[in-house]
Amino acid sequence: MRISSQGITGIEQREKTTPGSLPEVLAVDLDGTLLRSNMLHETFWSAFASDWRTPFGAAARLGKGKAQLKAYLAERSSVDVAVLPYDEEVIAFIEGWRARGGKVALVTATDQRLADAIGGHLGLFDEVYGSDGVRNLKGPNKARFLVERYGAGNYAYVGDTHADAEVWRQSGHAVVKSRSGAVRAKARAHASFHAIEPPKGGAMGLVKALRPHQWAKNVLVFLAIAGAHKLFDLDLLVRAIGAFVAFSLVASSVYLVNDLLDLSADRAHARKRKRPFASGTAAIELGLPVTVLLLLAGFAISALLGPWFLLTIAIYFVTTTAYSLSLKRYPIIDICVLAGLYTIRVIAGGVATGLPISVWLAAFSLFIFFSLAAVKRQAELVDAVKASKLTIHGRGYHPDDLELVSQMATGSGLVSVLVMTLYLSSDVVTQIYRHPKALWGVTPVLLFWISRVIFKAHRGEMHDDPIVFAAKDRVSMVCGLLIAAFAVAASLP
Fold first, then answer.
1. Taking the mean position of all CA atoms in its chain, how far away is CA 411?
2. 186 by DSSP, 3-state: which?
């Protein structure tokens, strides 16, 4: 049986040289085609998130072939196939094919267990075939399988990479989902061809995954030279800028790893599901190599700033990695770690420039950052309460914890204001500033700002990260300008 090519929905037939009939069977690839992700990498990060030993086990299996590696990762992962980023255009094309009376088979290099789960979830396939732990159903292996199963020229095939060239060559109709001219040329060589336009994303999705807006946190490395009134010391300023760049690179590498480890949790979150890796707008297979490049660059710059700064940023990286792998699941501990990660930026600024961090600055940083870390969890709990969720996915909190976490945020925030007040009353201020009384304007502004941030979180109007919120919030910007104005007034001749 062959079906008419006229009336297939969900796809623009861009190029097609044989407008007659099409094969009855449509074979559909999974990774990069039906799915805006790659199941090998999905299962690796899922397994890694639950067991830090996964990379070692995966490396041992890789020497025995990709099929065995995929079976190993499929067994140890817990990927939720219901929230994977499926391509709507490909699904529409499959539905159009079925509507014309054709049959559809999912034929993928993904392990059979996961292929069956995806097939069962979508309910679009008459047959499902995947790798079996021995044979990796990709490239020539897939082409041979399809010829054996349906016969040469008796199937149409939807694919997206160079590995599909032989499958297209043996098919009766080639469908390509790729912007690559070289890949399209391989499918176009077939007498019967058309294309599905891939969704936008690509490079911009990867840039977004680096979270450049989060680099605002790294401005904290400038507090050391700002507090010492040496912002215009060129040598110290260059070193502080180097520290800022190093922290930004290393922090972005950690953001990538955190997003890859949190794929399932992010896809279950109202806002985080739009993150590049979770939504499929960034290629998941680029996550690890880009992470390595960022780390190498960040540590290279850190080495130029001296061994102590290198040690500081190494501690930061190890702590953030431990947080991503485990510590974020433990209530209270996660807030303490987040507060420490903010504070270490302040300390790093002093290490990079050789300027000592005062006890006052260290104490103030600890309390205000503990408050902001608690606000971050408060915002997530408010969202959970509104959604009537029993738990926060990937965290150790319950909605009933909201009141306690709110109290922690408020109490620590008020203590930070108290520390600031005691500092302004100390002899240190009179030695540094010509008009120390002008600094008393800082206290009410700081009190207002902290109260407003907690109030915003209470109402569910807070960004997941309060520092990023502050960088975009006009009222916060005005508060920052007022504090800077009081500091300048206190320093005037």
1. 31
2. helix
Please tell me the distance from the alpha carbon of residue 131 to that of residue 137, in angstroms, as a whole number: 5
Q: Quote the Cα angle for 357-472-385, to 5°.
A: 100
State both tokens at 340: 């420490």
Mind listing the domains of the chain with CATH numbers?
Answer: 2-195 (3.40.50.1000), 202-491 (1.10.357.140)
0.85 surpassed by pTM: no
- Identify which of 486, 389, 382, 478 has the alpha carbon closest to the alpha carbon of residue 433: 486
Q: CB-based contacts of 83: which residues, under 8 Å, 6+ apart?
A: 264, 267, 268, 273
CA separation for the pair 226, 219 (Å, rounded): 11
Distance in angstroms (rounded) separating the CA atoms of residues 23 and 152 = 11
Percentage of the chain modeled with pLDDT above 90: 55
Distance CA(476)–CA(480), nearest Å, equals 6
∠ Cα 311 314 318 (to 5°)? 140
Q: Which residue has the tokens 């620590």?
A: 412
Q: How many CA atoms lie within 13 A of 238 on its CB side?
A: 4
Instruction: Indicate if the pLDDT at residue 18 is higher than 80.
Output: no
The answer to whether 489 and 445 are in contact (CB under 8 A) is: no
Termini Cα distance of the chain: 92
Task: Put the strands of the sheet holding 173-176 in their side by side order.
Answer: 127-131, 103-111, 25-28, 155-159, 173-176, 193-195
Q: Are strands 173-176 and 127-131 parallel, antiparallel or unpaired?
A: unpaired
Least confident of 261-270, 311-320, 470-479, 480-489: 261-270
**DSSP character string of 50-103:** H-TTHHHHHHHHHTT-HHHHHHHHHHH----GGGS-B-HHHHHHHHHHHHTT-E
Chain mean pLDDT for the chain: 87
Closest CA to 254 of 180, 208, 204, 321: 321
Please report how the helices 442-458 and 359-386 are oriented relative to each other, as an axis angle in degrees rounded to 10: 20
Q: What average pLDDT does this structure show over 465-484?
A: 87
The count of other CB atoms within 10 Å of the CB of residue 229 is 12
Burial letters 350-364, b for 16+ CB under 10 A, else e: bbbbebebbebbebb
Q: Reduced to 3 states, what is the DSSP secondary structure of residue 120?
A: helix
Q: Which residue has the tokens 């939807």?
A: 158
Nearest to 260 by CA among 429, 49, 410, 85: 49
Cross-strand pairs, 21: 4
DSSP states along 343-370: HHHHHHHHHHHTPPPPHHHHHHHHHHHH
Q: What pLDDT score does 19 carry?
A: 39
Mean pLDDT (whole number) for 450-458: 92
Bridge-partner residues for 2, per DSSP? 23
